[in-house]
Amino acid sequence: MGAFRAGYFRFWLRDVNTCLHRENGGGVPMGERRIMRGNTWEADNAGLVDDLVLAGPGGEPCLRFCSAAGAGHESTMDRTELGAAVAGRQAELAAAGLAPGDVLALKIAPGTGYVVTLLAGWRLGAQVVLLDHRLTEHETSRALDRTKPRLLVTGTGSGGALRAWHDVALRYEARAAGPAATDHVLIQLSSGSTGPSKVIGRTAGSLAAEIARYQLIPGMPARGERIVVLNSLIHAFGLVGGLLHGLSSGVEIVVPELLTPESILTALAGAGNPATLLGVPFHIELLSAVSGAPALPQLRRVITGGEIIRPGLAARFQERYGVPLGECYGMTEVGVIAMDADGAHRPAAGRPAPGVEARIEDGELLVSAPECPYVGEVAEGRWAGGWLRTRDAARIDSEGRVTILGRLDSQISVGGLKVDLTEVEGTLSGLPGVSEAIVVHDRGIEAYVALEPGLTGQAVEAELAGLLAPFKRPRRLHVLAAGLPRTSSGKRIRDHAALRAAAAEGG
Asked: Which member of 85, 229, 348, 485 has the greatest number of CB atoms within 10 A?
């Protein structure tokens, strides 16, 4: 498997614009947009790390894990220090029995240890499986059975669910397994927000191409700036849009100690160079609720992804902080698909990212994917002929901008009458005092909501009666005092069983 022969060839982008710009200007045909040996760009594991991610001035700051206590208490690394740490960790992995072509599973809480071990595994030539450190033993066992690693490295965090980075001691566990069965360098499990997780593989070329796409998207930060990352560094947006893009572009990656408004604002104010904030709508809700928000002249923009934001949130955030709220739309399977970094065309998520093609078929968004992203069992009909079905309802306007309308399964029939659950959810989320809401079709239309103090479910139902026709209204409204259940990446869970369990526990 050539992808694992570390050092066999090096990675370069001679002319990334030629390689990835959109079809109206030419470029590489979608069916050929892979590892282009001897043509436009090439990649292997070691090249991905040495020539793309770690390349740059040695003393350039690249990682900063902030402390809520402020300056002087954070953990920082420049490129020289990071490179040395990666080389040292690579030697440790080899001593633990990991060889090129093996599978390395990481279940490490985000922090320096996670970043260094990920890059070291790739540099050694391993296929790396990323497991969220918050998975239960049962979930971990199932994931390991599906991915079959030769070596498992764990590092459990502490400090509660709001802690964003951890300083952990690593534990190595050798396992009986053969070499990787595919040439993917990265294996991820989908978020599971709508059902069981899928095993998804990415090649070195796929990751390199996505990094290049981010570098071509207007508004993404450039060398000398900062990205304050609230997304999990294990999942797609935080991993590639934050960590890998930042390292390859000379942008310092900053992670706050805690996912609290105070800690996030401290991280943003911690330096004078321009900052871009990456997060999910949940984080934007937190920051928008801050009264007397401080002036942040360093903050240039905020980009959110993972799910559709509720009505009015973008305007409320911009009024409070004076910066635009941009949107990114993507999938674990292919990475970034579309972005509007300044939110200038909301509700559209922007035009397809450079190198991505999109089309609508029977109301569903399809995006270009040269290879099937699924490993092992594949959902029937999800990928064929270089196109991936997103299962999202969408439209593309005359300017090529993509607007996500919701999941395809949000279109239901009630007594022969069509109901769009996205419309019901949007109406419910827009009511004063409704913090967040999810509407699903389970035993009829059911809504799960989190409410601000003083508001009751009966009052919400009374408001809906004046806004929605009777056949569109939820049959049952569940008030969850503890808030809606979420995945480890912060996305709201729409799985019916998980929602029912949360309601049964009293929220």
From this structure: 229
